[in-house]
Amino acid sequence: MARRVMLITAPAPLGGGAPRMRKRLRNPRPSTPRPENRRPARFSQILSVLYEDDAVVALDKPAGLMAVPIHGSASPSALSLLSAKLTRKRQRALVVHRIDRFTSGILLFAKTEPDREALVRQFLAHTPVRQYLAVVRGRLEGKEETLVHHLRRVGMIQKLRTETDAAAARAELRYSVERPLAGATLVRVTLVTGLQNQIRAQFAAIGHPVVGDRKYHAAESAEPLIARVALHAQHLEFLHPRAQEKIAIDCPPPRDFEHLVRALSPPARQRQ
């Protein structure tokens, strides 16, 4: 199975998205801006292919780019950009799973219906290893923990419910502390289940929202160090749908995520 990296660029990319973001991050405003006065964030629409063979393709989706198109919208998505690329090779891009629009990292697609069906069965059974890096607000007690909640989707929001709610779904994740930061914590999260917005909703539920996540904690809209939710899909393991061999893919965090971690890291002498 061939491993290679190539770039897929949107027909009309957002000009200068990454440099503008880096400049804004290096020179934050002296006072915290009011949310309504902040300029809209500009994100890259360039996709890197992390892994590809005749059955599957894994992308490094940038934050801000939708995984799949919104009905009636002409805005590009990871699916539409990949489909345009594969059509030239007479191949297809079929959705296996999704990650949130403002989450960066690994996104997996299949190229044929049988391959997609085999992969979807794995995701429904929660057998793939899905790990994320997240920066959450505050200091977490202990090095490792398991979170279990029951969530019910109301509109586009996951709401906390009790186990007795027949419409609620069980949400479980495990996390380990990677590094304490200034007023925050870098954690590695392993999904046990895979609900939409699960990581964001569960950390908000325990009083440690993901930094930059205005959807589940309104005060995060004023965060000046990152223009999106500080969540990155960093590692994925699954069984290849044909060879039945384990495929492991890693994706380093993008610059805005790394900048946030550096900005919140205490000086070396304080870490000793």
Structural class: alpha+beta
Number of domains: 1
Mean pLDDT: 86
Largest sheet: 12 strands, mixed
CATH topology: Pseudouridine synthase
Q: Termini separation (Å)?
A: 44 Å
The value of Rg in angstroms is 19 Å
Strand content: 25-35%
CATH architecture: 2-Layer Sandwich
- Number of helical elements: 6
Gross morphology is: globular
Uncertain spans, ≥5 residues at pLDDT below 50? 1-6, 9-39
Question: Any idea what the CATH superfamily is called?
Answer: Pseudouridine synthase
CATH class: Alpha Beta
Order of helices and strands: EHEEHEEHEEEEEHEEHH
Q: Percent range for helical residues? A: 10-25%
Strand segment tally: 12
Give an account of the 3D structure.
This protein is α+β, with helices and mostly antiparallel strands and 272 residues long. 20% of the residues lie in helices and 31% in strands. Strands 1, 2, 3, 4, 5, 6, 7, 8, 9, 10, 11 and 12 form a twelve-stranded mixed β-sheet that branches. It has one domain: Pseudouridine synthase, CATH 3.30.2350. The N terminus is likely disordered. The protein is globular, with a radius of gyration of 19 Å. It is built from six helices and twelve strands.
Can you describe this structure in just a few lines?
The chain has 272 residues and is of the alpha+beta class. It has a single domain, classed as 2-Layer Sandwich (Pseudouridine synthase). Helices cover 20% and strands 31% of the residues.
